[in-house]
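INFO worker-7 received task bundle
INFO bundle size: 2
INFO processing item 0
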Amino acid sequence: MPMRISIMKNLLFLALAVVLLSACGKEVRPPSEDSVIALESFDLAENLRSAYVKKDFKAFKKYCTETGYSGIKKELKEFDSVELSFTPRWVEIEKDTVYLNVSWEGRWTAKGKTYEERGMAVFELKERPLKLNRILRGSPFKHPEVKDIF
């Protein structure tokens, strides 16, 4: 009798191992092209944010088309430091253009004063790999907007 129980235990263990191994062998589908593009746009936004916070405009330029960088360069304001966060909200993918909607919050320090702003930006991304071509609305890179009331 003990021999039968031992054989039964071994068979049960073997059956369980086969079931587990077959469950692990399911085919994993690669991500869709749209998913890859969306993730690339999120990474680009984070790289832009990081370069801006570090005031590394050489790196910032690398993530922009010529049109995109010249448009942003015109709007840049002086600041001592910035805390800026991005939250991607929506990605729209067309043939050769990606539109990334990003909500953002920022706190700029300039000349001893602190300025807080928030908004929703729409980034137009082009080329491969993706680069910022222009900001259609809500640019976080044009702050701090100093509002002195006389």
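INFO item 0 finished
INFO processing item 1
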Amino acid sequence: MATTDIRFKRMDKEYLSLRQTQGELFDKVDTFEAALLGLTEMVVELNQKMDAIIEHLDVPYKPPAGFIKE
């Protein structure tokens, strides 16, 4: 058939388009994952700094309940 080659080319382009889109999506997910891991590390570091400041200033602080009223 005359249209067989055209159909195969169309299917090939659809397949390549799908793969390219999936590749771009995976790249975005990897970028977001790296950003999230970086933010998580920053939060841990900031918590450690806050704990050190609280200890240094001798702030009456009870982690589960918050600040203690005097």
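INFO item 1 finished
INFO post-check item 1: The longest strand covers residues 61-62.
INFO post-check item 1: Strands lie at 61-62, 66-67.
INFO worker-7 idle
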